[in-house]
Amino acid sequence: MSLRSLIATGTKLWLDSIDPDLVKKNHALGASGATSNPIIISDLIKTGRFDEEMIELFDDGNDDKEVAWLMTDSMVHDAQEVFFDVYNQTNGNNGYVSFELDPLLEDAANPLPHQERVKQYIELAKEWSRGHQNRMIKIPATAAGLDALEEVAAAGITINVTLIFSERQYKLARDAVWRGVQRSPNGLDKFKSVYSIFVSRVDVYTEKQVASLSPAAQGLVGIVNAKRLWQENQAFWADKKLPLQQEIIFASTGTKKPTDAPDKYVEALAGSDIQTNPPATNDAVEKLNKQYARKVDQMPPKAVLDEIDAKVDKQKMEDTLMQEGTAKFADPFKALLKLIAEKRAALSTAK
Fold it and tell me: What confidence score (pLDDT) does residue 351 get?
């Protein structure tokens, strides 16, 4: 009952993985899209299931970074194939798989000039979207990512703006995408954009940085933040008369505290737009066998909202979480490159 019940509330369920087995399993349970990142790619490579494919790439003379991107491209494409039926049935409103651009563009250890990063985001978005109908290109809401969005949207590319924690980031991203797409030669008929709001990471932040929040408010900031941005997104697009929905993705929906119910965020955000859930969260939700109801438009009491507004410095929260978020972007990709180098050595020895 659980996942089907969640979907019945109006939520589109996406999987935070492109593991071929999990994609098929969750598709059968009602999932209608997926997303990828370097950690997911690394975990799949570690299983050994892709060794033969990697040997071919090594033998063709690809370096470690080229192998990383060719493997990502192949795995994302395979997931796209599974969800292409959804894409067709919904005329492009659903059924996407997200492809994350080079996280090393945001590597603090090797900083690139701002304009060079902007240029590379635009070029990479064009490269990795070419020839794909149901692939979303993930661009982070960093300074360079935000500045690249208008040109990427003008090129008619379907965008998932990721790593959003604040109203400031959301508005800049949304406005840039909307400006860009109005210049696109493709027109607005197939225009689709999504904005990934990270939820549980906000509550991890307030536990550490805003310990003065009362028990009634602590642990609700991520949900309140996501719901407010959802409301703002609904209001902005309401009068645009577009064929496809421009949606919020509720990301980072896995609970971080053992004392929290595994479906804390899933339940609170049920009823609209997209939830990108980790496989373990979907498994836990399915086992709960609960009946879900729409809650995305229900807010906590005014006293809780007032306390959150009084005590949480939104700019400080964004700055801290973005610093952590970009590190979580770059570091896993470096780990992926290290893993590929180790695989190269191990597989050549095994020959």
Answer: 61
Report yes or no: 97 and 32 within 8 Å, Cβ to Cβ. Answer: no
This model's pTM is above 0.85:
yes
* Residue 327 banded pLDDT, cuts 50, 70, 90: confident
Is the pLDDT confidence value at 52 over 90? yes
How many domains does the chain fold into? 1
- To which residue do tokens 């209001």 refer? 235
| Residues in CB range of 313: below 8 A, 6 or more apart | none
CATH for 281 = 3.20.20.70
| CA pair distance 141, 138, nearest whole angstrom | 10
Q: List alpha helices for the chain, DSSP H.
A: 2-8, 20-28, 38-46, 51-59, 64-89, 114-129, 143-154, 167-181, 200-209, 221-237, 264-268, 279-288, 302-311, 314-350
For 108, the token pair is 């603090």
Vertex 235 angle, CA 232 and 239, to 5°? 150
Q: How far apart are CA 109 and CA 14, in angstroms?
A: 33
Compute and round to an integer the Cα radius of gyration of the chain: 20
105-109 CB contacts, 8 Å cutoff, 24+ apart = 105/144, 106/140, 106/142, 106/144, 106/145, 106/326, 106/329, 106/330, 107/330, 107/334, 108/326, 108/327, 108/330, 109/330
User: First vs last Cα of the chain: how many Å apart?
Assistant: 49
- Structural domain of 210: 2-350
Alpha carbon distance 318, 302 (integer Å): 23
CA proximity to 36, closest of 95, 94, 79? 79
